[in-house]
Amino acid sequence: MKKETLSILVCPACRNKLTAKPEEENETEIISGNLYCAECGIYYPIENKIANMLPPELRDEF
């Protein structure tokens, strides 16, 4: 996921700003890690540069 994208993403559940918690990154991209919503406490995983913005209850279905 491009780091510049973080400035426009919001939590799908509550519409608050997300914070990146990268595990692997380079200068411009987050390769793996999580997006975190401090308001509702939900984590959205980032794997292979792709953020999974599905609600936790739907992630295993897709």
UniProtKB/TrEMBL annotation:
Domain of life: Archaea
Xref: InterPro entries: Trm112-like
NCBIfam families: Trm112_arch
Protein name: Trm112 family protein
Organism of provenance: Methanimicrococcus stummii
Species classification: Archaea, Methanobacteriati, Methanobacteriota, Stenosarchaea group, Methanomicrobia
